[in-house]
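#lab-general

N.A. 3:47 PM
ok so I finally got the sequence cleaned up, no stray characters, all 153 residues accounted for. can someone with queue access submit it? mine expired

B.Y. 3:52 PM
send it over

N.A. 3:53 PM
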Amino acid sequence: MWCVPPCRRHQLPDEPLPVGNLNVEPVSSVRDLGVYLDTDMSMDTHITQLVCTCSASCDRYAAYVARSLATLITAFILSKVDYCNVMLSGLPKRDLERVQSVINAAAHLTTGVRKYDHVMPLLKDLHWLRVPERITYKLCVLVHNCLHGTAPH
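B.Y. 4:20 PM
back already:
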């Protein structure tokens, strides 16, 4: 490997170098153990590759983390909200709003928006129902299962 300062790069040979019965073409950078070395040792190629690779990884992992976070919130928070929520049917609005605040906080956490941003677009994007609709949905599913003989005895 030939390393020269940029002012002497023109002195490097352009033609292939014979090694045994092979001709090795000159290149401006090589990779060894994941590190890119360029002819002037500026590390410019390595930094460019590092930034590109990390940016792509961040995009890929951010989507993965967002999906994982939504799954965790659904499993640990919304499942608690939904557990026996039929018992909340008929409660005053102020009581249901307290439960709704938990869902709102979960929506903000899942989407990563600020605490005081409006929550309705978030719930719509996440396909989450508000507490009164969750209760109504659960009641409808329970009645449907009873009418069709699929409810527990």
